[in-house]
Amino acid sequence: MPFNISFKIGTHLVWFDYFRTLIVRVLSTARTGYFYTTQRLRLGPKLAMMKYDPVVKQRVLFVESRKTKK
After folding, report:
1. One GO cellular component from the entry (predicted)?
2. Which residues of the chain have pLDDT under 70?
3. What CATH topology corresponds to 22-70?
């Protein structure tokens, strides 16, 4: 489970943030409604990947459509 850790070095408070990833939904561009959920870095670019769509029975482009709740 993600959590924050902080500790003090001298007079500075140091935070280690473990919320670096997002869970996102990637949707088929074949407009079949099929989707995968996957993780990506919070500060990274939006996902686009070639994956198998079982509705059309071939590999198609999947693009990030929205973020899901973590």
Report:
1. mitochondrion
2. 1-19, 69-70
3. Rubrerythrin, domain 2 (2.20.28)
